[in-house]
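User: Here's a structure from my thesis project, written as structure tokens. My advisor, Dr. K., wants to see whether a designed sequence matches the one we expressed. Can you design one independently, without my sequence as a hint?
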């Protein structure tokens, strides 16, 4: 099969399943935004207070763990909703490796939208978050500056998370049989 067929199929699947993909992408955008803002505050903290620096650094690590768990959970909900559709693709003659390639393109599109949208909204609201922190701590007006390090950290973290999600989804599809996939949508949450 041609690569453009997988891309077209992935985009049409995203459009057809927009009721489930829009909340998934919005939660991913908010997660990326939240992580970027905390990473930028921790990396560019102008305060000389060591305790505040430690708290901001720890909050970045907490958000990393939260992002991993949260995005895996929302993805499992999404895949559960699509199991019947994926089983029908397999029954109608699409091999599992072709379904895997289609999933790769779906994840690439959702990852680019999520990471890009999260970084843009994070950069837009980061200045506001910085000013709120200064006001809360009753500090003098401190010069604000953007840094490339939090952007690179955000790109790296969420690229790895989306890659892990993709690997998990492909492994799930490769292990399952079409009959299991057809019944998978009606199975309960663990």
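Assistant: Designed independently from the structure alone:
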């Amino acid at each position: 099969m041609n690569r453009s067929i997988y891309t077209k199929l992935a985009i049409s699947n995203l459009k057809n399943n927009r009721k489930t993909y829009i909340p998934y992408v919005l939660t991913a955008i908010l997660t990326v935004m939240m992580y970027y803002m905390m990473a930028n505050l921790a990396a560019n903290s102008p305060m000389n207070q060591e305790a505040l620096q430690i708290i901001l650094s720890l909050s970045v690590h907490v958000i990393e763990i939260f992002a991993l768990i949260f995005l895996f959970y929302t993805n499992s909900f999404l895949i559960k909703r699509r199991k019947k559709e994926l089983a029908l693709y397999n029954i109608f003659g699409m091999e599992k490796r072709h379904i895997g390639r289609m999933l790769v393109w779906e994840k690439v599109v959702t990852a680019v939208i999520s990471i890009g949208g999260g970084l843009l909204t994070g950069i837009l609201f980061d200045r506001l978050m910085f000013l709120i922190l200064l006001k809360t701590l009753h500090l003098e007006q401190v010069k604000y500056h953007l840094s490339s390090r939090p952007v690179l950290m955000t790109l790296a973290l969420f690229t790895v998370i989306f890659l892990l999600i993709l690997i998990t989804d492909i492994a799930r599809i490769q292990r399952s049989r079409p009959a299991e996939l057809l019944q998978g949508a009606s199975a309960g949450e663990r």
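When you compare it with your expressed construct, this may help: The chain has six helices and no strands.
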